[in-house]
Amino acid sequence: QVQLVESGGGLVQAGGSLRLSCAASGRSFSRYSMGWFRQAPGKERDFVATINWNGGTTYTAHYGDSVRGRFAISRDNAKNTVTLQMNSLKVEDTAVYYCAAAYGAVGAGPRTDYKYDYWGQGTQVTVSS
């Protein structure tokens, strides 16, 4: 069983930056693919980024179209954490951001959320104009 806790959300002006962190409990963190999703009120859950475990010590990062070039996902297996660095934030980035985990590779893109087994409770990100 894996437990996930997000942190780092808050209020920021458009064009600013914010860094989200996700702390995971449980063993074998390095063998899990990690993802970030977001959901705004009245909207569907949106894929943001993932860093997939490809076996061994190899990982591959992928990003949603709306955040590619602005966001960066990374992980620190020694600390059981995954980070989402968000730059050049836009008002439309406002949402609750969720960290998720799945054993093995899960791919990336729309409708991959069903592949994740564990979810955090979310952290609010609000971008003002």
Characterization of this structure:
Strands 2, 4, 5, 6, 9, 10 and 11 form a seven-stranded mixed beta sheet that branches. The chain has a four-stranded antiparallel beta sheet with strand order 1-3-8-7, with no helix packed on it. Helix content is 0%, strand content 52%. It has 129 residues and is mainly beta. The protein contains no helices and eleven strands. The mean pLDDT is 95.
Taken in chain order, the helices and strands follow as EEEEEEEEEEE
Number of helices: 0
User: Quaternary arrangement of the chains shown?
Assistant: single chain
Task: Give the amount of beta strand, in percent.
Answer: over 45%
Taking pLDDT < 50 over at least 5 consecutive residues as the criterion, the unreliable ranges are none
Helix content: under 10%
Q: Sheet with the most strands?
A: 7 strands, mixed
Q: What is the rounded Rg?
A: 14 Å
Please count the beta strands (DSSP E, at least 2 residues each).
Answer: 11
Distance between the termini: 40 Å
From the helix content, strand content and strand pairing, which structural class follows?
mainly beta
